[in-house]
Design goal:
Elements lengths: L1 H22 L9 E2 L12 E2 L9 H4 L3 E3 L2 E2 L20 H6 L6 H8 L10 H4 L3
Antiparallel strand pairs: 1-2, 3-4
The structure holds heme C (3 copies).
Length: 128
Amino acid sequence: MKRSLFMTLMVAALAVALALPLYAAPKAPADGLAMKPPAGAKQAAVKFNHGTHKSAKCADCHHKKAGANEFAKCDSKGCHGDYAAKTGKESYYAAFHGNNAKSCLGCHKAAKDKSPNIPTACPKCHVK
Ligand code: HEC
Ligand code: HEC
Ligand code: HEC
């Protein structure tokens, strides 16, 4: 009886250990990640470095999931996929330039006092 309980627990532990990677958070990609701007974009595409943003939590930026271990793309449907609007929750532009702590420019402007080198000028992010 005791032995079968032990075996049951071992099998259960093994099952959990094998399933864990399925639920593990994705790894941050290498620096220089090329973002894909919409067709007809006016600015040069942004290259984003995860390595210089370790002070922020993954979920600060990746606040929607596409699957168990996949983050949703910023421009996913119902997220920030409205390329035309300049303001509002679904605006693609506002997601990166809005005056809130989660947008690229919003956080950079707020952090400028502490980190004077933090970029706020257009060509510093939209590098040609
Ligand atoms: C300051 C904001 C920010 C933080 C913090 C951040 N990311 Fe990202 N990450 C981005 C942006 C922006 C993209 C590009 C999204 C897109 O293309 O829609 C991205 C893309 C990704 C991708 C997809 C890569 C690809 O090839 O498409 C993964 C995986 C990812 N991040 C993981 C992480 C993990 C893990 C963390 C925490 C350790 C993290 N990120 C923290 C902004 C951030
Ligand atoms: C929560 C705050 C925060 C958000 C959101 C954020 N940043 Fe930053 N960013 C920082 C800080 C802090 C630094 C300075 C890091 C350093 O100097 O080590 C920085 C530095 C940078 C730099 C200069 C260093 C480098 O990697 O070349 C670029 C470019 C940059 N961020 C782009 C972006 C983009 C693009 C986004 C949005 C996708 C973004 N940031 C979102 C806080 C933020
Ligand atoms: C802190 C980084 C950062 C700064 C500074 C910044 N942007 Fe952006 N911008 C982004 C990100 C990230 C995207 C979305 C990814 C992409 O389109 O490559 C974007 C997208 C855009 C878009 C929509 C796509 C397009 O090219 O038509 C416009 C327009 C734009 N930015 C204009 C500007 C202007 C004008 C400035 C200066 C006033 C500026 N940005 C400064 C990060 C930044």
